[in-house]
Amino acid sequence: MKKLIKDPLCHFLIIGAALFLIFDIVQDPGDSSLNTITINTADIKVIKADFARRWQRPASEEELSALITEFARNEMAYREALALGLDQDDPIIKRRLRSKLDLIVEDMARLSPPSNQDLTKFLDENSDRYKVQPRISFRQIYFNPESRGEQTTADIAAALDKLKSSPTQQDILTIGDATMLPAQLELTPITLISRQFGQMFSKSLLEIAPETWIGPVGSGYGLHLVYVEKQVAGYLPPLSEIREAVERDWTYQHRDNVLRDAYRLLAEQYRVIIETDPANPQEWTAEAAQ
């Protein structure tokens, strides 16, 4: 008897019998609609399309038959699970259903495409997001105050006089101290310059007149002599040039706004009690949904 109880086949038969007993209790034998599963041409079309999208070829007759069988089994399991109440208090199912509800709301949001006025207003309110950054071409010569000490200021002044009088390429290469920083950058966005040299240095570059050696200019590494070759000012492109990006961002924000408003309206229809302290329950308000 003990051997029989431990037998996995025995376990399977017991579980199966229990399930059939439960199904018999929860289902109404007189309701034949619960036991009818209709797989129509639209369902089969979706099944075929899913297979073709996944495997990049149409399903064979044998594969299609297996897919239809699996579709029917899924529907059977789904109905029996609902009858048993297996959907109740399941956080995974709740999250999935919320996702489907959110998708419906998002689809509704897409029904109202933005007008030119909507996009223009959005661009005005978020102009920093679309501005083309200033770009600068420059050379720099680095001086290390730690190694030069008190002589740093005099060395920089002498080097600057030499560069302003009659600089040669050899002078530019031999003046200053060794560094891993680039000696020259071509039309580089100001944010990339900031990443390499620091904000203090890049901000100073914007104030330097082109085609003359200037210094010392400070950075997080030390001091520099700088020659700005070219500056291209930053600007905000017209909507016609960046419409695709603006419309995409507007759509994302509009979707978020519609979702937020939908949950705010839902919150007004429910009373939520938070019982962190059973003796003093707190009421959750609709404002929390915003």
What topology does this entry show?
Layout: H1 2-6, H2 8-26, H3 41-55, H4 61-83, H5 91-110, H6 116-125, H7 127-130, E1 135-143, H8 145-148, H9 152-165, H10 169-174, E2 184-189, H11 190-197, H12 199-205, E3 213-218, E4 223-232, H13 239-267, E5 272-274, E6 282-284
Helix pairs in contact: 5-13, 6-13, 11-12
Write a structural description.
This protein has helices spanning 2-6, 8-26, 41-55, 61-83, 91-110, 116-125, 127-130, 145-148, 152-165, 169-174, 190-197, 199-205, 239-267, and strands spanning 135-143, 184-189, 213-218, 223-232, 272-274, 282-284. It is an alpha+beta fold and 290 residues long. It has four domains: 1-31; 37-88; 92-131 and 237-290, no CATH class; 132-232, Chitinase A, domain 3 (Roll), CATH 3.10.50. Helix 5 packs across helix 13 (239-267), helix 6 packs across helix 13 (239-267) and helix 11 (190-197) packs across helix 12. The radius of gyration is 36 Å and the shape is elongated.
Backbone CA Rg = 36 Å
CATH class of the largest domain: Alpha Beta
Oligomer: single chain
List the strand order in the largest sheet.
2-1-4-3
The separation of the N and C termini measures 63 Å
Output the keywords.
two-stranded antiparallel sheet, 290 residues, 4 domains, 6 strands, alpha+beta
